[in-house]
Amino acid sequence: MQPSPEQSPHHAYPDHWEADVVLRDGGTARIRPITTDDADRLVSFYEQVSDESKYYRFFAPYPRLSAKDVHRFTHHDYVDRVGLAVTVGGEFIATVRYDRINAQGRPASAPADEAEVAFLVQDAHQGRGVASALLEHIAAVARERGIRRFAAEVLPANNKMIKVFRDAGYTQQRSFEDGSVHLTLDLEPTAESLAVQRAREQRAEARSVQRLLAPGSVAVIGAGRTPGGVGRTVLRNLLGAGFTGRTYAVNSAFAADQATIDGVPAHRSLGEIGEPVDLAVVAVPADRVPEAVADCGEHGVQGLVVLSAGYAEWGAEGRERQRELVRQARSYGMRIIGPNAFGIINNSEAVRLNASLAPERPASGRIGLFTQSGAIGIALLSGLYRRGAGLSTFISAGNRADISGNDFLQYWYEDPDTDVALLYLESLGNPRKFTRLARRTAAVKPVVVVKGARHSGSTPPGHAVPVSRIPDATVSALMRQAGVIRVDTVTEMVDAGLLLADQPLPAGGRVAILGNSESLGLLTYDACLAEGLRPRPPVDLTTAATPQDFRDALSAALADDGCDAVVVTAIPWVGENGEAESGDGEVLATALHAAAATGPAKPVAVVHVEIGGLAEALAAATSTVAQQRPSTASPALGVPGRPAAEAPRRPDTGRAATGRPAPAPDKAAGDDGPAPGAPRPVGRIPAYPAAERAVRALAEAVRYAQWRRQAAVPGKVPEFLDDTIDEPAAGTLIQTLLGQDPDPRGRPLEHDEARELLACYGITVRPTLPAPGPEEAVAAAARLGYPVALKTTAPHLRHRADLGGVRLDLDGEPALRRAYGELTDLLGKPAELRPVVQSMAPRGVDTVVRATIDPAAGAVLSFGLAGAPSELLGDTAHRLVPATDRDAAELIRSIRAAPVLFGWRGSAPVDTAALEELLLRVSRLVDDHPEVVSIALEPVVVATQGLTVLGASVRLSPPPARTDLGPRRLSNY
Asked: Residue 478: what pLDDT?
């Protein structure tokens, strides 16, 4: 909303303060600045506030606002006086205002840095987290305007408002003065305030998803009058799944006397239903969707699944139509799945929702599946069905204009029905948030991701996402740092999901292989080696092996302390007449289940070739109860599962949304499950048609388990860095270098400027002296001391020793003059080459350290060996900033050429501790000063003792916006 011409021209309307937020109950609201056009809305809002709330606000009976009050509360300068409103359906439901004050509590202007703040929330909307969201946003506004503290006077009986301030996580002081509680809040974000903000975000967004997945009633808008069509198909699928709530069909074309369709009530509009509707499935042409959304919003619908096409996937006109759809839905407090969605499924026995175009509701299971593609969703559902796998929830979000994979990570994090999250993503709308949420979710249950559109260089139609400059290999590395299992194909995703959903996590990479085919065992052995596992020699049971032989061998392997996982290989038995027999797959499956049930909890996978009924029998779990499947890896590791949490409640009934009670808390540390030999619940044993697929899935489980063990004890930034870092000096230097009016494109630093900035963080760059001529080169060498290096600094020759642009170990003036002449004769004039002289560094391994700020992913720290390994082969490792000591250690060990640093072929190992320290210093610099948008240290020569930074380039720019650190808000449409 834009201000009227009466608004102060000195301070333009701050439209960047506008934000959509998710409230505690899962509904949405809009926060925006109050303008002079809001007088009538303010008066109407105030009339609906109770006398008690008015008393708490003004400390006296205040039945109505005077004209002077209305003018005061709607006229702001957006600097010293600011008012924000929360709106739903265009009407105010809450307001907040601050007024800058001086030390005496009187109105003031800058440089005064304190403001008095006051809230008012309509009674009908109290308890929804409105005031908490408003406090986050008004605090961010105040910080932007140079205000550092809020002061508030609250009556002692106003417990709700006192709690809002107390629970915000800000540093605060309280005192009792003149019959009221005086509160002072320091607005500088703290670790506690950020944790509070993110916890509230998680609860709100999870609740918004839960309202969609567990509705008490569903209306299908656009259900056709005759069989067929999208709407009628969804209605049929809802009924076929046995949805436990109420179902309605809505179509304005229904005859006035038509009472039912397919046995459910038929209505021409939502208003005719006469009862609340929680979820609306919209299946009408795009040009009729706005009318349907308005009807839903006016009748209290909580969420929408929009199947209609014709939006951003159709071009610019469709993109604008999509933005308007989201804008309209959010204005009524509703969230959207879609448009162009395939639908949603919730397999909980308490819900049994199939609001999708999938004709069959998949079996119930422990896997949550999110996809941005309807076609991929169909393929995944089909593949999981064939493999006997079950789902807890399924979501195909289409253009994902509103609800995205991030929202479902919030939901699955505490969903007791989901043990594994599978996501097919074609774009990341908020990569920083995705990484944060994925890391938290992966700490309690596996997250498996397939990323489509990796190399197209374009965003899929309908997906509005920030532009990222980082390559896909970097994205993959950052996902793995967050604990995400990144796979390349949907087949691999299903393979990994099956193993992770029903098998315990392995304690390590030691794999036992057993079966009745020597050849298949050898193939499995080779696949294990290729994946970095440590296989034991295969045990050949021979083709005469019986199911009992398999059971005995599997029991022995599971009981072996030197084994972390088992791969069973099986081919059809050979009969007495020499012909292959399919055998009884069910008998073999029973034998394997029995062995797994009585042995220690270790993962088991089966590779089979044409054994009829085996895969199906293995997929039949021996228990459908949520299992406590402890891992032998570590008591802290636990199993793929969930944090202890109460089952979400059905919005219409208050009963649990799951078909069983919430799981018991995880076993105490050291409880390794049932006593040896005692049966324990065993889920499905995954079966694979190829050894490579089984081993790849197992390898992903091994790597994930290792990440879980490490994540249980997070890394840290060594304290010694604080003693050698001068952060204030660096900040002052950066401000001086950028100037008062910095170029938004930024500026590269000169060599001496970069050296000075890096020195503030304990990073020493070996000096270079310009050599525009041979005489200057000789003088520079005399000043630095021989031996020296002569190097060109022209961009096209920088670090290109292979082109002759670097001459090393020049031990005297004759050698330097000769090298200078050869350099200019070969490559060009000195003015073009820009030669410099530098003293020689101790011999070592040439490496490169970089840090860049990507607008989508954030700050990324990179490491590799200089030259061909990193530039030609792409052998570079990446970690998100800020990096911990563990990140730095993993960074240098995760490149393929890492053995060169650790004594490859008898060479002396280099000082990796010094290298890790350098990485931590660069990380701190970029994290402390977001104006540093890129750093490149090349080469960094790492010797057996110490290292030398020979070259450095630094670029500064005005700091980019950090939306992940600001107040909660939904992505822009």
From this structure: 81
- N-to-C CA span, the chain: 15
Helices 39-47 and 67-74: angle between axes, nearest 10 degrees: 120
How is residue 609 annotated by DSSP?
S
Sign of the C-alpha dihedral, residues 668, 674, 680, 682?
positive
> Which two tokens mark 454?
């990796």
In this structure, what are the phi and psi dihedrals at residue 358, rounded to the nearest 5 degrees? -75, 120
C-alpha 145/C-alpha 185 separation (Å) is 16
* Residue type (1 letter), 706: Q
| Positions in the chain whose pLDDT score sits under 70 | 1-10, 429, 453-470, 574-583, 612, 621-682, 720, 798-802, 856, 960-965, 973
CA dist 890 and 751 (Å) reads 30
User: Which run of H or E residues covers position 327?
Assistant: helix 316-331
The identity of residue 31, as a single letter, is I
Q: Please list the residues that pair with 865 across neighbouring strands.
A: 847
DSSP state of 273: T
Distance CA(686)–CA(593), nearest Å, equals 11
Whether the CB-CB separation of 616 and 385 falls below 8 Å is answered with no
The Cα-based distances of 126 to 50, 120, 349 in angstroms read: 11, 10, 33
SS3 content of the chain, % helix, strand, coil (to 5): 35, 20, 40
Q: What is the pLDDT of residue 806?
A: 86
* pLDDT for the residue 211: 95
The structure tokens 């000082």 sit at 911
Let me know: does 402 contact 326? Beta carbons within 8 Å: yes
363 CB contacts (<8 Å, ≥6 apart)? 347, 385, 388, 389, 390, 391
User: Three-class SS of residue 768?
Assistant: strand
63 Cβ neighbours under 8 A, 6+ residues apart? 51, 54
CB 515 within 8 Å of CB 546: no
The C-alpha atoms of residue 718 and residue 923 are separated, in whole angstroms, by 12
Which residues, 6+ apart, have CB-to-CB distance to 300 below 8 Å? Answer: 276, 277
**pTM tops 0.70, yes or no:** yes
The tokens of 104 are what? 């005496």
Cis peptide before 111 (omega within 30 of 0): yes
CA 123 to each of CA 128, 333, 334, 575: distance values in angstroms, whole numbers, following the listed order? 10, 17, 20, 79
Query: In the prediction, which pLDDT does 677 show?
Result: 45
The answer to whether residues 638 and 631 touch, using CB atoms and an 8 Å cutoff, is yes
Strand pairing category for 180-186 and 149-154: antiparallel
Q: Which residue has the tokens 């040439």?
A: 846
CA distance 690 to 849: 41
* In contact, 606 and 585? CB cutoff 8 Å: no
In this prediction, residue 461 carries a pLDDT of: 57
246-250 and 217-221 beta bridge pairing: parallel
DSSP states of 334-373 = -EEE-SS--EEEE--TTT-EEEES-SSPPPEEEEEEEES-
Nearest to 413 by CA among 392, 381, 443: 443
Q: Which long-range contacts (CB under 8 A, 24 or more apart) does 154-163 make?
A: 154/56, 154/180, 154/181, 154/183, 155/55, 155/56, 155/59, 155/179, 155/180, 155/181, 156/180, 156/181, 157/56, 158/56, 160/126, 160/131, 161/56, 161/119, 161/131
Residue type, position 185, single letter: L
Q: Are 86 and 95 in contact (CB under 8 A)?
A: yes
Coil/strand/helix, residue 227? coil
What is the reported pLDDT for 313? Answer: 86
- Token pair for residue 704? 């994930």
How many angstroms separate the CA atoms of 831 and 244, rounded? 80
pLDDT value at position 45?
96
